[in-house]
């Protein structure tokens, strides 16, 4: 099953907001104090309070990870690649649950004036 809105297709500009941990996450979310920014050695899930802006690289399917080319995190330019744990279900309009997290995904509206 593909994420319902047809606007989300290859290289669609989107916002991905982490709203909560999944009901029974494989890895519980950490805190920003524990998270080592830019490290590939982090062994947990990102803290809950973040919003990513960037480009969706593939359609969202159950059983597959959300893959994004990230341009901004929390309004600050942070170029990189984002990959979630696999999608478990779609929870209503624009809500996606993965093994670890619940996300809201929408068309991105970030502008150059929002970048710090």
Q: What report would you give on this structure?
A:
This protein is mostly beta strands and 116 residues long. The chain has no helices and six strands. The protein has one domain. A hairpin with a 4-residue loop joins strand 4 and strand 5. The chain is globular. It starts with 11 loop residues before the first strand and ends in a 9-residue tail after the last strand.
Highlighted features:
116 residues; six-stranded antiparallel barrel; 6 strands; 45% strand; globular; disordered N terminus
Query: Over the alpha carbons, how many angstroms does the gyration radius reach?
Result: 14 Å
Instruction: Categorize the overall geometry.
Output: globular
Counted by DSSP, the helix tally is 0
- Count of folded domains: 1
Beta-strand portion reads: 35-45%
Secondary-structure class: mainly beta
Largest sheet strand order: 1-2-3-4-5-6
Count the beta strands. 6
Distance between the termini: 37 Å
Run of helices and strands: EEEEEE
Percent of residues in helices = under 10%
Oligomer: single chain
């Amino acid at each position: 099953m593909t994420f319902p809105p047809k606007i989300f297709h290859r290289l669609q500009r989107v916002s991905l907001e982490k709203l909560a941990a999944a009901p029974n996450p494989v890895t519980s979310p950490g805190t920003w104090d524990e998270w080592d920014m830019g490290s590939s050695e982090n062994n947990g899930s990102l803290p809950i309070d973040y919003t990513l802006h960037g480009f969706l690289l593939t359609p969202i399917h159950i059983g597959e990870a959300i893959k994004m080319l990230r341009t901004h995190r929390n309004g600050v330019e942070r170029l990189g690649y984002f990959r979630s744990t696999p999608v478990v279900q779609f929870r209503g309009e624009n809500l996606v649950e993965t093994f670890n997290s619940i996300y809201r995904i929408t068309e991105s509206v970030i502008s150059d004036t929002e970048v710090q």
